[in-house]
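EI: anyone free to look at a 568-residue chain?
SC: sure, send it
EI:
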Amino acid sequence: MQHIEHVGPGPVSPLAREEFVRMRDGIRLATDVYLPGAPTTPDAAPGETVLIRLPYDKSGAYTYIPLIAEEFTKRGYRVVAQDVRGKFRSEGEALLFVNEADDGYDTIEWIVNQAWSNGRVAMWGDSYYGYTQWAAASSQHPALKAIAPRVTGTQLGEPVRAEPGARTRGVEWGITYLYPLTYFHSRDAYFWELDPERRPYSAQVEAVLEQLGSRSISYDQWYPRPVHLPRFPNGDPFDARPVPTLHTIGWWDNCAPLSWADVARIEQRPAWALNHFLRIESMDHESYYLDDADADRVEERSHEQLLAGLPRMLEPSLAFFEVFVRGNGAPTDIPRVAWNLAGTPGMRASDTWPPAGAAPLELFAHPDGALSDERPAGASDLEWVHDPADPVPSSVANAFAFLLDAPDEAALADRADVIAFTTEPVAEDVDLTGPVRAEAVIASDGPVMDLFVRLLDVDERGRAFRIARGQVHLREARDAATVEVDLGQLGYRLKAGHRLRVHVSSSDAPEFIPQPGTGEDPWGATETTTNRQRLQLGGDRPFRLIVTIASPGIAPVAVTEPKGTHHV
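SC: here you go
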């Protein structure tokens, strides 16, 4: 029998008053209202409101919303924290993503009709409670004056889909199928561990559902026959009236590709682009930072550690809301792009991303393992064996908290199924500021092939720290194909004496579902076999990495951070 951890709702904060807000279809959502001065002398006079809509328990320890609400109320905001439909104390079905637009509109409508509201609402939050902000923006409620989504995307959690006729697509995360079975199985949360050595994975799911005695509507809509319900019934968020947005992305957030995809779409819409302010920090999805002290790299952070981290988390949004919700100051007070160059202190400002003057640099892989700006003299191939019974292991146990461990990945290069290419040490600091991508000609003796490309910083001691990554799935893989791998964006200082290294492989498990080698759906596959994979070096289509280098002639502009924000 599978060990399952059952987590129910925490106690309502003594600082809050719990309400049950009725939606248009009669479903009531559990909602905590925090007023400045509560509980002793609550200020019920009309004021601005910060709305937080989340599925992780508005009163629970994981997201510590009561502490966040207290920080906002200290600045005079009313805070409304709500369990989304079907979660914890709220009524309704626990169905991912599709109810958040209308429920967001109805909740804002309820807020503006309260005596303590002045009709001006902002939204704040990470991940799923960043997604609920995009959903609310799509509803076009006129009272929504600003949003501050962090580490999220409009397509958060959506299963990978291929374009019709395309031979390539993304590689599926394991969390895509596990999330609706844990956080979104039903009102409470149920946590259990998938055994990566026991196929089919889908059979493990069925055993857990039988043990729980009920199914997950969110899982069943996606597997085994996906039903893609419309997320935004009122239309795409970026086709709606633009809302001033402080959009925060983490360099090491595993969901960053979803954020950058939204940035690309926003850049194609001038009205949205005018209202879009980008903030890029050296953090991961769970708000661990590159410059955290060792004592703060703990899975269970203490009350004191949470309090100490609140200014860094909240001050940028408070400064943004001061301008766009309260009307104090001008939009020009907020940097269009504020970003940290990882490995250096402080935040920088630029008018665009990438910053002006950034230029691409091509690096080519060589048969001897070198990586340089010189093209190989001739064409050759490198091969390795993908064994689904012994996949390349993911470097951290929790992909959402990469910087909790900040692992050394040098040992992965010793595996026979990981191909490594390394530059010479750089003579002086090199700032990588912009997109990173790889181009490769690949093939397999199997029907499909996954290609993983990881970019690492190797220091003088040989420690290899991952700074960018990307992956692509190829079908009809027996026929060689040229693929492009998007490794995302970088803002990183490669220090003098360090080297760049590329790892090439065909798995990263269990974070990504490993291919069985047979071409079957990897979640439901029962049989496995090895595949021989091939990568072309040199010739007319060499394997190459394209990084973006900052111009040495353009001095960075430092940002004066809001009071309370710090970078070590």
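EI: The first helix runs from residue 65 to 74.
SC: 👍
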